[in-house]
Design a protein that fits this description.
Chain lengths: 165, 417
């Protein structure tokens, strides 16, 4: 089972896609150009502080709003290893899996976690914070396959090129 | 055990007799729509990431430019050119300057019973004609365009039984924002919101589009009004045949059933910075909140009913010199009708700025972007922090009558009746 540890950034409920990446930056040519503006309406300094391998912990309905796929792409490009939230908006959920960004659903850890804490993630099994374990549900098999391949396009290629419709 | 409308549409698309919530199915899509918000990125992925790129059936794919129309800087111009060139090369129908994507899709394509993917969250609008429209991101769209298929998890259905009629001055926008306020911005997450009852059938197709369009703001995967005679008429009028008129079975299972009496609905004014911060304009107007801009338009509210309501609220009045009032008809067809019946002239006389049909103020780019600490009252789809401009700006959501009346008064107010 894959296991990793990451430093935590804490956000609240209903973090929408316009907060993750505001419209005015969508016209920038690449996700690399956009990523300094991630979360800027809420916390303009955050994108510069996130380091590779960090973990985002948030409340309910994370990623609600627009279908813009730049949202999970930017979170991944900032180096976030996974997001732990109480729940996710459905388009964001699909877009994250399709881009190989791991999403974990848990509603307990938010009460105990502080920004800067370290969380240990055992993928598909549990998360641990300060010696306490929180169980998590594994993703369905077809979604795990996409995630492990690194996203939907990679999974499609892996399955011997494009499936002829 | 019977099936709901959403389950029947997925079963048809999956080639299955029966499907149940929670199952994952491979489906053949009836149609796919992508707009200029993201198509250039999808084209990049198509050209750079795939080994043997091809498009399963170009006839099922529609590209519509509406987010940055006309192009306002070299970056959007480049994105448009990429979209235009790709459409031409692959035989994909392209619309440019015809209107907001969901309005164009309703006018020219959507049929009841279809399963439609759109690379835009408000694709839920197509439930107005009894179709299952759902928003996806660029990668999902790419996969669908290349294979003609995708996977879906069958959602549970929430049933909304609507009774009676909305009072004068109250719109389906007030109803759906009330529902979102009641169930919360994730109250329908992963679910279908199905609307039925005499109150639903009393609504016009335009009204139903308003209802279904905003279901995504409650997190819904689709919003569907039980199709009826009005759907058949609409399809015929637009040169199409309504074939798959699905209704939920008597013994269909709903995750929850809600009852709404339409006479009880009041004109709303949703407060910043979130779609479920519901309040009524009757409450909000007591605070005499000054506005800097008002907007009537968007995929939710740029149709003839809304333009009429705005013109009515401005009768004998002028837009306040402190306020910019922007109006963007939803499509060229709507625009022409509003010219013919004198509505555009009335709006211009009152001091409104008429924009070409496009997403305009609603999505915070291209037109009418608001500055630091400015206040907007809008018929747009969202009021998230910074949605329409500076992070410190504020957006209130209301119906076209409230927006127009507020434009004249200079502060948030109900139209005179």
């Amino acid at each position: 089972m894959e296991q990793f540890t990451g430093k935590v950034w804490v956000l609240g409920d209903d973090i929408d896609t316009d907060i993750i990446i505001p419209t005015e930056y969508l016209a920038l040519p690449t996700v690399e150009d956009m990523k300094p503006y991630g979360f800027s309406p809420l916390r303009p300094e955050l994108a510069g502080q996130i380091r590779k391998g960090d973990i985002l912990v948030a409340g309910k309905n994370f990623g609600c709003g627009s279908s813009r796929e730049q949202a999970p792409e930017i979170i991944k490009a900032l180096g976030i290893r996974c997001v732990i939230a109480k729940s996710y908006a459905r388009i964001f959920f699909r877009n994250s899996i399709n881009n190989g960004l791991l999403l974990i659903e848990n509603s307990q850890v938010q009460e105990d976690v502080k920004e800067g804490d370290s969380i240990i993630v055992k993928v598909g099994e549990s998360i641990s914070l300060n010696g306490k374990d929180y169980p998590i549900q594994p993703l369905p098999g077809n979604l795990m396959e996409i995630l492990e391949a690194g996203g939907l396009v990679a999974a499609m290629q892996k399955r011997n090129g494009i499936r002829r419709a | 055990m019977g099936m709901t409308i959403g389950e029947k549409i997925i079963a048809r698309a999956a080639g299955e007799e029966k499907v149940a919530p929670g199952e994952i199915h491979t489906v053949t899509l009836d149609r796919m729509m992508s707009n200029d918000g993201t198509t250039h990125l999808t084209v990049d992925k198509y050209n750079t990431k795939l080994k043997h790129p091809r498009i399963a059936d170009p006839k099922k794919v529609v590209f519509i430019m509406d987010h940055n129309v006309p192009a306002d800087n070299p970056k959007t111009a480049a994105a448009h050119k990429k979209m235009r060139d790709f459409a031409r090369e692959h035989g994909i129908k392209l619309y440019e300057g015809q209107g907001v994507c969901h309005q164009v899709m309703m006018e020219d394509y959507v049929c009841p019973g279809e399963l439609i993917f759109g690379a835009d969250s408000h694709t839920t609008s197509y439930g107005a004609l009894g179709a299952f429209g759902t928003g996806v991101g660029g990668t999902d769209f790419l996969y669908a365009m290349v294979t003609g298929t995708s996977w879906v998890m069958v959602p549970e259905t929430l049933r909304f039984n609507l009774h009676g009629r909305l009072r004068k001055g109250v719109t389906p926008r007030d109803l759906i924002l009330k529902i979102i306020g009641d169930i919360g911005a994730n109250g329908a997450n992963y679910k279908v919101m199905e609307f039925a009852g005499d109150g639903a059938h009393g609504l016009s197709i335009s009204d139903r589009m308003v209802l279904c369009n905003l279901t995504v703001e409650a997190g819904a995967k689709a919003g569907i009004v039980e199709p009826d005679e009005k759907v058949i008429e609409y399809c015929e009028k637009h040169g199409r045949k309504a074939e798959h008129m699905f209704k939920s079975d008597e013994d269909a299972v709903f995750a929850k059933v809600y009852e709404y009496q339409l006479e009880d609905i009041e004109p709303c004014c949703v407060r910043p910075d979130f779609v479920d911060h519901y309040d009524t304009i009757a409450n909000v107007e007591k605070e005499k909140i000054r506005i800097d801009e008002a907007f009537v338009g968007s995929c939710n509210n740029g149709r003839l009913d809304d333009l009429h309501m705005a013109a009515e609220a401005l009768k004998g009045k002028k837009v306040s010199p402190r306020v910019r009032f922007l109006v963007a008809p939803a499509s060229q067809k709507v625009y022409q009708q509003a010219i013919e019946d004198g509505t555009i002239e009335a709006l211009v006389d009152a001091g409104a700025m008429i924009m070409n049909p496009n997403c305009s103020v609603c999505w915070g780019s291209c037109q009418g972007v608001i500055g630091e600490n400015e206040v907007l009252v809008s018929t747009g789809t969202r009021n998230f922090k910074g949605r329409c401009g500076a992070p410190s700006s504020k957006v209130y959501l209301a119906n076209a009558g409230v927006c127009a009346a507020s434009a004249a008064a200079g502060y948030l107010v109900s139209p005179e009746v």
